[in-house]
Write a structure and sequence with these properties.
It comes from Caenispirillum bisanense. The chain crosses the membrane at residues 59-78, 98-120. Keywords: Membrane, Transmembrane, Transmembrane helix. This is Quinol:cytochrome c oxidoreductase membrane protein. With 178 residues, this protein is an alpha+beta fold. The chain has two domains: 7-51 and 123-177, no CATH class; 55-121. Helices cover 46% and strands 15% of the residues. It has five helices and four strands. Strands 2-3-1-4 form a four-stranded antiparallel β-sheet, covered by helices on one side. The longest helix has 28 residues, at 55-82. The chain starts with 6 loop residues before the first strand and ends with a strand.
């Protein structure tokens, strides 16, 4: 008795960028969850995949503002509260001197938050992905375009997806097992 493997999705290889882009648009319009693997960033592909998630940009902004504010707070606390030194009757807090270290810490915090948001958004690090078992996946880094329609709902019908990919001009259409 053989064990039935779960289907991750259905993948097809395309040699034409415009054909792959049109297939992605049609598949997302049909309500399927689609991933595209391309050798370079294809103009219009993020919009076709409907990747409109603004939270990585918000994480960058929050990191920058938080880092700047934290640096200003630490410097203010150190000079005005913890160890105040009155030098010639000047103010205890020199706000102009705090600007450069605060800016640098704000940039550092923005970069750390941006890299963290990118890793979370891209679901990385991921050492294994079912698409690696698709035989033509390696071609997506050298000139071909691989489109995978994922099995994420009860309405996923492998035969209907296979026919859709065949009508769209896909080659090497195969089931991808999880």
């Amino acid at each position: 008795m053989t064990e039935q493997l779960a289907i991750f999705g259905m993948a097809a290889r395309f040699d034409d960028e415009a054909l792959a882009l049109e297939t992605v648009r049609a598949a997302t319009d049909a309500g399927w969850r689609v991933e595209a693997y391309t050798p370079y960033p294809v103009p219009g592909m993020p919009a076709a995949l409907r990747h409109r998630d603004p939270w990585p940009a918000r994480a960058l902004t929050a990191g920058a503002v938080g880092g700047f504010a934290a640096a200003m707070l630490v410097q203010w606390y150190a000079t005005a509260v913890d160890y105040p030194i009155n030098v010639g009757g000047r103010d205890l807090v020199a706000w102009a001197a705090f600007a450069i270290p605060s800016f640098e810490l704000g940039v550092l915090a923005a970069v750390v938050c941006g890299v963290g948001a990118m890793l979370v958004r891209n679901r990385l690090p991921k050492l294994y992905h079912p698409i690696f078992w698709y035989p033509d996946h390696w071609r997506s880094s050298s000139g071909s375009y691989v489109v995978c329609i994922e099995n994420d709902c009860d309405a996923f019908d492998p035969n209907a997806v296979r026919d859709f990919l065949r009508r769209s001009g896909g080659q090497a259409i195969r089931e991808v097992t999880a």
